[in-house]
Amino acid sequence: MTDLTTKTAQSLHPMSVRQSHVVSDLYSLDYGFVFDIQSLGELLAYWTERHRRHMEIGFSDFVNSREWKGQSADHVSNGYGQWLAVRVETERHAARPRSLINLLADMNSEVLIHMEKLLSDRERIFIMGSGGYFGNHESLSALETKYTETFTLLAIKTLTEKDIRITQWSGGKHHYVKVGDTELGKWPTWSAAHRHAVEFVRSKESRCLPS
User: Fold this and answer.
1) For 68-104, how does the pLDDT look when each residue is reduced to its tens digit (9 = 90+)?
2) Residues 70 and 21 in one domain
3) For residues 51 and 37, is the Cβ–Cβ distance under 8 A?
């Protein structure tokens, strides 16, 4: 990210962070509290203070994974890490492959450009704790809106180990973890999947990845 973008984000940083409890009437989904972004300034503030941390976690997950280091490590598990692993594998077949750092920088730019376009088209975007996002739609309703001083999502309820769901496709090699409404990722063994799920439940921020 350029210095100009960083300075712009800082100068436009809102006095408080807006987050709304969003539900979908069309699909009967409850997204819980999500960041409710309604201006470019709010998006850039989110980008510099929250998204950067997601990318750091994803990058660390990937460079310490089997996909990068080989058989001695576990498979990549973080959402951003999985995305980076796919892009790196694709890049290996390119005529002039980019370096890992350049690839990560380009991925960041792509995401920001898409978020800016979506915000321009929909005038409002919602960003989940995992970093996933979606534009406003007539089927969505904000049941409640609150303001916080930091980009830390509020919890609808306190999650417990009873909210952990671990599934495996028939014949599949991975165990997929979901805690409440949050999909954490996949792990090669049930024990590893369960360990990460329990750590997530016990974390201070129960509805999203570590900030």
Assistant:
1) 988 888 888 888 888 899 999 999 999 999 999 999 9
2) yes
3) no
